[in-house]
Q: What sequence folds into this?
């Protein structure tokens, strides 16, 4: 379930940023939040499990909130850099926690399909040409969907599809 929790959390973060700043936060599969094509947030999940039992999932969310533009790499941004003024971190964190709880309730009560529907609406990846490096192989094609496990579905030039569970996604421009 860790990949599903990552995608659910990405929906919560994107929605929180949109509410708090009115900026068009988008999700780059699987775990980055972008504003104006720059990374503003990264999400990491780690799971400990035994057969058929998840012992725990650790969720880490790192949002560049009030970092000055000069202190960021060129491919990154912060909420302050995009909004033009400081963002209240405590209020942002409170809203994010409420949103995480809300999305988790949807996930538990209505299933992962509802999360995928929301994720698609925030996607920066779907419809784009991508190059993915995973397990020492490169996959190139068009990101066309997410499957019910949270894998990215990529249509290859051959017409076949690959379902990718993990990897570094590069957008081909």
A:
């Amino acid at each position: 379930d860790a990949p599903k929790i990552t995608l659910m959390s990405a929906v919560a973060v994107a929605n929180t940023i949109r509410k708090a700043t009115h900026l068009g936060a988008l999700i780059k599969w699987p775990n980055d939040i972008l504003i104006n094509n720059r990374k503003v947030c990264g999400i990491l999940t780690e799971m400990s499990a035994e057969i058929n039992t998840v012992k725990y999932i650790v969720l880490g969310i790192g949002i560049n909130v009030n970092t000055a533009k000069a202190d960021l790499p060129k491919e990154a941004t912060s909420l302050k850099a995009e909004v033009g003024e400081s963002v209240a971190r405590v209020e942002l964190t409170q809203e994010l926690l409420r949103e995480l709880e809300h999305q988790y309730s949807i996930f538990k009560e209505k299933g992962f399909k509802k999360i995928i529907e929301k994720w698609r609406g925030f996607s920066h990846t779907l419809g784009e040409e991508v190059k993915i490096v995973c397990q020492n192989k490169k996959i190139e094609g068009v990101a066309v969907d997410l499957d019910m496990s949270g894998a990215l579905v990529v249509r290859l030039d051959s017409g076949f599809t690959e379902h990718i569970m993990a990897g570094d996604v590069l957008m081909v421009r």
